[in-house]
Amino acid sequence: MSTPAVNRRAIGGFLPLESLSPNISENVLSLWDVEETNAWFFANARSALAHLLQQFEIKRLFLPEFICRELVSAAGEEREVLFYPLINRLSPDTDVLSRSLREGDCVLAVDYFGCQPEQMFRSFVAQTHEVLWVEDRAQALMPAAEPWANWVLYSPRKLFGVPDGGIMVHSGGHLKPVAHPEHTSKNRERPRVMRRDDAEERDNRRWYDAYRQVEAEMTVSDEPISDITRRLLAGIDAASASRRRCENYTFLAGKLQEFALFPDLEPEFVPMGFPVRIRNRDAVWERLRANRIFPARYWPDLPSERSMFPAAHALSRELLLLPCDQRYNGDDMAFVATAFMDALE
Question: Are residues 160 and 263 in the same domain?
C-alpha cells in the first residue's frame, strides 16, 4: 500500500538557520572542546585539512575508500593521495595500513554518521606515533568515546543550521593563529534564512537552488569561518539536539533494524541520521521524495578507483541516510518509517 503524499512540511534536506537557545547547559563549541587557542577556524573542513597538511609538510595523505570527492581537494596537486579499505562497521583496515604507512604520512579516518571506528583501529592509532592522524567528525556531533586522534576535524554545517565552518582542533596545546584574508564571501546564510522564513515551504525550489549554489562555490582557501557561525555554535543547545537525535534514531531502529547499516537499537553515539542499505536505493529515494521526505545519498561519485575498491562503490549505490535530526519528533519518524517500508514495495 502506497503512502499518500500529504500536505505536510518536508522532512530532510539542509537545515534552516538556527536560532539561539536561551539558558543552555552546554553549547556546541564547549561540547567539542573548541577554544581560540587550540583550534583553526576556516570556512570549510577541506580548507582546515589543507592548512594542516601544509603546516606539517605532508607528502602523502591516506583517505578511506568511502569518502566525498571534495575532501580530496585538500591535498592539492603537490601531495599524493592514497586510499585504504574499510572493514567492520566502516572501520579502517589496520592490516593494510600497517603495511602501507611511512613515517610522516597523514591518515584521515571518518566517524561515519557519528560512529567511531572499532577499538582495534583505535588501538592501532595509539601505537603508531610516526604518523599524523586526523579524526574526521564532520558527521559526528558526539561520538561514544573521547577523540582517538590528536587532530579532530569538524564541519558544523553538516549537523546544524549554520552557513559554513571547518574547525581543526588540536588536543595537544596552543596553535599559532592563521592569517586569514580580510575579504570573505557574504550571504552564505541566505539559503538557510530563506528556508527558515518559508514556514509553509511553498518556495522550495528557490531556496534549494540557492543552497546548491553556495555549496558549489565552496573551495579550498584561507577564508575564515563566518562570525554568524561562531555566534550560533556558541548558542545552540547541544544536549537538547543530541537527545532528540538519539530518540529519533532509536525509533527508526525499532522499525527498520533489518535495513540498518549499524543495527544499534540504542546508539551510544549521537547519530547524524539513520543509514540504511538497500539494493534498489535510487528507486526508494525517488518514492520518498514524492512524499516530501528527502534522505541523502552517500556518495554517488567516489574518488577511489572502482576496480580497486569495489565494496565502497557498491555501498555508494546502496546507502541512504534517513533524516532523524533535532527538527523532528516521534510522529515525523513514524511517517518516515511507514513511507520507507511502502517505498520498498
Answer: no
Whether residue 103 sits in one domain with residue 87? yes
Instruction: Give how many domains the chain has, as a whole number.
Output: 2
Mean predicted lDDT score pLDDT of the chain: 93
Q: How far is CA 175 from the centre of its chain?
A: 24
User: Which uninterrupted H or E stretch holds 232?
Assistant: helix 227-233
Contact 220, 76 (CB under 8 A): yes
Cell reading at 271: 547519530
**Which grid coordinates belong to 209?**
537552488
Ramachandran angles phi, psi of 143, nearest 5° = -65, 175
* The three cell numbers locating residue 216: 558549489
pLDDT at residue 7 in the model: 62
Q: What's the pTM value of the predicted model, to 2 decimals?
A: 0.94
Question: Do 222 and 260 share a domain, yes or no?
Answer: no
Distance CA 264, CA 112 (A): 14
Give the domain extent around 328: 238-344
Give me the amino acid identity at 270: V
C-alpha cell at 154: 569538524
- 132-136 and 166-170: which strand pairing? unpaired
Residue 280, in any domain of the structure: yes
At 138-183, the pLDDT tens digits run 999 999 999 999 999 999 999 999 999 999 999 887 898 898 887 6
Q: For residues 262 and 117, is the Cβ–Cβ distance under 8 A? A: no
**CB 297 within 8 Å of CB 319:** yes
Kindly state whether residues 201 and 329 are assigned to the same domain.
Answer: no
Q: Distance between terminal CA atoms of the chain?
A: 8
* Residue/partner pairs of 276-279 with CB below 8 Å, 24 or more apart: 276/319, 276/320, 276/321, 276/322, 276/340, 277/315, 277/318, 277/319, 277/320, 278/318, 278/320, 278/344, 279/318
The identity of residue 71, as a single letter, is L
* Residues β-bridged to residue 331: none
Judge contact between 214 and 191, C-beta under 8 A. Answer: yes
Q: Is the pLDDT of residue 20 over 90?
A: no
**Phi, psi at 151, each rounded to 5°:** -110, 125
Residue written as grid cell 609538510? 57
Q: Are residues 169 and 61 in the same domain?
A: yes
